[in-house]
Design a protein that fits this description.
CATH topology: Immunoglobulin-like
Shape: globular
Strand content: 35-45%
Structural class: mainly beta
Strand order of the largest sheet: 2-8-7-4-5
Number of domains: 1
Helix content: under 10%
CATH superfamily: Immunoglobulins
CATH class: Mainly Beta
Order of helices and strands: HEEEEEEEE
Number of strands: 8
């Protein structure tokens, strides 16, 4: 098994590499009560700026929204400007189509009250 930094997790999955688990598993000896529920937005970084090109097809004019979630088997809800855009499970990432303006991106656990600190991104036209 590989023990890579978290930023390589998606790459390793695409390459079908077996990576060491980073989250609690029901097969692990520790009790689930020891896992502190947490969600944090890892992409994009707050303050990121993007350039919107109206001639670029929507499928190619999107950014990745990604989150770190404990426990990893929890679903999260992605919100942009207070509106739900997706409900996803592991690996907790989606592609969000760019729109000009200042946007507030949030991730919340679907079945718990934990919410990530929001990030703000600007899409310039």
């Amino acid at each position: 098994m590989l023990d890579l930094p978290e930023r390589y997790t998606e790459w390793a999955a695409q390459k079908h590499l077996e990576i060491a688990p980073r989250q609690y598993s029901r097969l692990c000896p520790r009790a689930p009560e020891e896992v502190v529920p947490e969600v944090a937005v890892t992409e994009p970084r707050s303050g990121s700026r993007y350039l919107w090109d109206p001639d670029t097809p929507v499928d190619f004019s999107a950014i990745r929204l990604a989150a770190r979630v404990e426990p990893a088997d929890e679903e999260i809800v992605w919100l942009v400007d207070g509106k739900m855009v997706a409900k996803v499970g592991y690996p907790h990432s989606i592609r969000w189509p760019l729109r000009p303006g200042r946007h507030r991106v949030e991730a919340r656990m679907a079945r718990r009250s934990e919410t990530a600190s929001p990030v703000t991104v600007v899409v310039e036209d």
